[in-house]
């Protein structure tokens, strides 16, 4: 399904590249995608990989875009957005930045109110992302549909009614892939400490994650029931889970995720000021 949606990315880093990979030549022609980045190497890579248009400075392409995706770090957002003001008229502005609130983007854009704030994640790279998103009042039906189509090009979407929930979404799915990788790293290390090779440990840990996650996605039972089915009384899993409980692993994960959400809020407060 291709349409003629013209999309400009401000920032062509990791997340932008993941999104462009799902969009270019799929949702819209590669020639309809434009990336502005100050890093010439990133631009050259994107240009080569996807055949999109690139430039090191904001130019007239921006004014002709339907959607402007803000994909720089929260710390850079205010300075970058200030440069966009003369070029933003009716476009949809779609931010993927952690923390930065729509109200601050709108103020920096001199009252522009067609903003969709999103939180994607890196499995977008393989079309398996999930994005939490919320729209401001000035977003039209068509713009909302365009935002949804852009994020669906790299996975699933979950729309929120309340922007405050974006920080919890960031804590669950935005940062979430890193927790999974951390858990896999721990399993790989344990495998090696117990005598398996790195290659064996790698295969066993990753396949276990993929298989268990797919089972959880497909099963009609809650994950707690799936866990109980692995856990024989007096058996090996019971020994492992008892050790985790004794070390407070579950509470530690909960605390960590609350820290991520709090950091999202703090980023908004710190980098969303005038
Ligand atoms: N990496 C992740 O897992 C996720 C990141 N995000 C958000 O995505 C945004 C981008 O993150 P990443 O892609 O990971 O960062 P990144 O550092 O890979 O990309 C940022 C890009 O912005 C460019 N840039 C910096 N100043 C600029 C300017 N003045 N004009 C144009 N381009 C400029 C940099 O050269 C860089 O290529 C962040 O706001 C982050 O919160 C959201 C969800 C997940
Ligand atoms: O760590 C971060 O701040 C970004 C947002 C979610 C994932 N990476």
UniProtKB/TrEMBL annotation:
Main location: cytoplasm
PROSITE patterns linked: P5CR
Pyrroline-5-carboxylate reductase dimerisation domain: residues covered: 163-266
Catalytic activity from the UniProt record: L-proline + NADP(+) = (S)-1-pyrroline-5-carboxylate + NADPH + 2 H(+); L-proline + NAD(+) = (S)-1-pyrroline-5-carboxylate + NADH + 2 H(+)
Keyword terms of this UniProt record: Amino-acid biosynthesis, Cytoplasm, NADP, Oxidoreductase, Proline biosynthesis
Domain Pyrroline-5-carboxylate reductase catalytic N-terminal stretches: 6-99
Protein EC: 1.5.1.2
Compartment list: Cytoplasm
Pathway: Amino-acid biosynthesis; L-proline biosynthesis; L-proline from L-glutamate 5-semialdehyde: step 1/1
Annotated Pfam families: F420_oxidored, P5CR_dimer
Class of this enzyme: oxidoreductase
Single Gene Ontology MF annotation: pyrroline-5-carboxylate reductase activity
Xref: HAMAP family: P5C_reductase
Annotated family: Belongs to the pyrroline-5-carboxylate reductase family.
NCBIfam families linked: proC (TIGR00112)
General function of this protein: Catalyzes the reduction of 1-pyrroline-5-carboxylate (PCA) to L-proline.
Identification of the protein by name: Pyrroline-5-carboxylate reductase
Gene this protein is translated from: proC
């Amino acid at each position: 399904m291709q349409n003629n949606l013209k999309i400009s990315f401000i920032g062509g880093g990791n997340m932008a590249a993941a999104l462009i990979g799902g969009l270019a030549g799929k949702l819209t022609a590669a020639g309809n995608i434009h990336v502005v980045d100050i890093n010439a190497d990133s631009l050259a890579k994107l240009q080569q990989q996807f055949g999109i248009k690139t430039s090191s400075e904001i130019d007239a392409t921006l004014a002709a875009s339907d959607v402007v995706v803000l994909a720089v770090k929260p710390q850079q957002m205010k300075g970058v957005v200030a440069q966009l003001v003369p070029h933003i008229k009716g476009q949809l502005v779609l931010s993927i930045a952690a923390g930065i609130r729509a109200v601050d983007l709108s103020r920096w854009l001199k009252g522009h109110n067609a903003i969709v704030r999103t939180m994607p994640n890196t499995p977008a790279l393989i079309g398996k992302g999930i994005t939490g998103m919320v729209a401001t009042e000035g977003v039209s039906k068509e713009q909302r549909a365009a935002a949804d189509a852009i994020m669906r090009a790299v996975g699933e979407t979950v729309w929120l009614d309340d922007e405050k929930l974006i920080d919890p979404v960031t804590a669950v799915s935005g940062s979430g892939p890193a927790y999974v990788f951390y858990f896999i790293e721990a399993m790989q290390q344990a495998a090696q400490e117990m005598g398996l090779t790195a290659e064996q440990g790698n295969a066993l840990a990753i396949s276990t994650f993929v298989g268990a996650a797919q089972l959880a996605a497909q099963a009609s039972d809650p994950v707690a029931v799936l866990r109980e089915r692995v856990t024989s009384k007096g058996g090996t899993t019971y020994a492992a889970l008892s050790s985790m409980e004794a070390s407070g692993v579950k509470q530690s994960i909960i605390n960590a995720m609350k820290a991520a959400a709090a950091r999202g809020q703090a980023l908004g407060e710190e980098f969303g000021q005038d």
